[in-house]
Design a protein that fits this description.
2 copies of one chain form a homodimer.
Chain A lengths: L1 E5 L2 H11 L5 E6 L3 E7 L5 E8 L5 E4 L3 E6 H9 L6 E6 L5 E7 L5 E8 L17 E6 H12 L4 E6 L3 E8 L2 E8 L12 E4 L3 E6 H7 L8 E6 L5 E7 L3 E7 L7 H4 L2
Antiparallel strand pairs in A: 1-5, 1-7, 2-3, 2-6, 3-4, 4-18, 7-8, 8-9, 10-14, 10-16, 11-12, 11-15, 12-13, 16-17, 17-18
The structure holds a DNA duplex (10 and 10 nucleotides).
Family (chains A, B): Belongs to the PCNA family.
Protein name (chains A, B): DNA sliding clamp PCNA
Subcellular location (chains A, B): Nucleus
DNA sequence: TACCGATGTC
DNA sequence: GACATCGGTA
């Protein structure tokens, strides 16, 4: 028996909107610790890791560890039917092949339940090691989103270079080149407007903008984003979910090709 | 000679936006009583009835009963050219085959007149008997609209069931099932937020969501909607137009098929 | 199905 | 003026 009551239901709505385009089907894993998901994107290039800790739920009952395979598109459709102020409860009976989403309006005048079929999904639960990163950039999520969107109108890939002074995003395309530099800046009114760079070693890595743009759909979950970079490691783009956990996106860097090869 | 001056022109704009997708061509009937319309939708499944009483107009002159056939799409196009604060005057000379819409901006700085050709339309003016209904639900129009929209992302039809406690909207589709219950609730701040159920007999009827979703385009005309249900009778979905009349939509229930037949 | 543009609201 | 939502297009 599983029953998870999430007062701020809009969080779950936003999580699904942010990952459903990247991953079609995935297993949600539920344990005493929390509600989590880990899945490769459909082209097996990026990885999504979601964690909603049990403490973040108003009521959390999970009798035994359970893995529920869901089609994220269908799940998102159902969650769209919840109001942004609704309380969402996720329910599943032991051994059942369905999950129920219950939506309670703030006034309790309207109570909805949506039942969805579960599916069997081969899960490839990769343990993701906690790594040391050469550089960690924290910046406003809206700004990062804007940069990725802007650069993708010029080129397909972005080079992210971190030095002590700042982080540089560069691209190159048929119509020209673009460089955007964000300087470290902690003298701001609100802490979430800061751009903070922790750096042990300068790094410069190349990524496909297509994926970064998909990641930034999670911007509504948090005002800030954390980008953790190391040479030879996948970048981690993390959006914290207030009081509850995070959504993290992992993306392997492109191996820099010779200039000559990129322009055949 | 016909001359109807409507100070709150936005009402007419909204009326046309709400019915133009359902009905292509229709006769507007003008008499001393008011300005009205009654028409089947293009697939002859639903019926629209509009009444704007003469008292609601600032000036109302209608020398003799007249029926004016209009293409509602074209009429809506013209009305879109009126500002929301404009005063709209509808004019027609006796025996003319055109109608003129005049728009006066609130400041009188701008005066526009649009002339539209009338058309001959076979009208099938069905007398609609005032019936007794088993159950009448009054609820916020926005809420009803949201429910119809949400459910149509899951299924094609909705079962509306009324009991003393509340009204239940249910659907079923490929990805799962959904039930939304609205409880009777009269303890609200504003009367238009109430959900009120008058019930003589429990009813449970099935309707095509496609039509209900079309009806709810009239939600901007009124904060509340009234849904009148009886077994074997078309449902009536009514939006009152402040001080003037109403738009009513009629839709026949679907005859419930056996479970076996719906799942071939 | 995903992206982009336009519209309406706060 | 900015954000969010909705509708249309690719």
């Amino acid at each position: 028996m599983l029953e998870l009551r999430l007062v701020q239901g809009s969080l779950l709505k936003k999580v699904l909107e942010s990952i459903k385009d990247l991953v079609n089907d995935a297993n949600f894993d539920c344990s005493a610790t929390g509600f989590s998901l880990q899945a490769m994107d459909s082209s097996h290039v990026a990885l999504v890791a979601l964690l909603l800790r049990s403490e973040g739920f108003e009521h959390y009952r999970c009798d035994r560890n359970i893995s529920m395979g869901m089609n994220l598109g269908n799940m998102a459709k159902m969650l769209k039917c919840a109001g942004n102020d609704d309380i969402i409860t996720i329910k599943a009976d032991d051994g059942s092949d369905t999950v129920t989403f219950m939506f309670e309006s703030p006034t309790q005048d309207k109570i909805a339940d949506f039942e969805m079929k579960l599916m069997d999904i081969d899960s490839e639960h990769l343990g993701i090691p906690e790594a040391e990163y050469h550089a960690i950039v924290r910046m406003p999520s809206a700004e990062f989103g804007r940069i990725c969107k802007d650069l993708s109108s010029i080129g397909d890939t972005v080079v992210i270079s971190v030095t002590k002074e700042g982080v540089k995003f560069s691209t190159r395309g048929d119509i020209g080149t673009a460089n955007i530099v964000c300087r470290q800046n902690t003298t701001v009114d609100k802490p979430e407007e800061a751009t903070v760079i922790e750096m042990n070693e300068a790094v410069s890595l190349t990524f496909a903008l297509r994926y970064l743009n998909s990641f930034t759909k999670a911007s509504s979950l948090s005002n800030t984003v954390t980008i953790s970079l190391s040479s030879e490691l996948p970048v981690v783009v993390e959006y914290k979910i207030a009081e509850m956990g995070y959504v993290r996106f992992y993306l392997a860097p492109k191996i820099e090709e010779d200039e000559e090869e990129t322009k055949p």
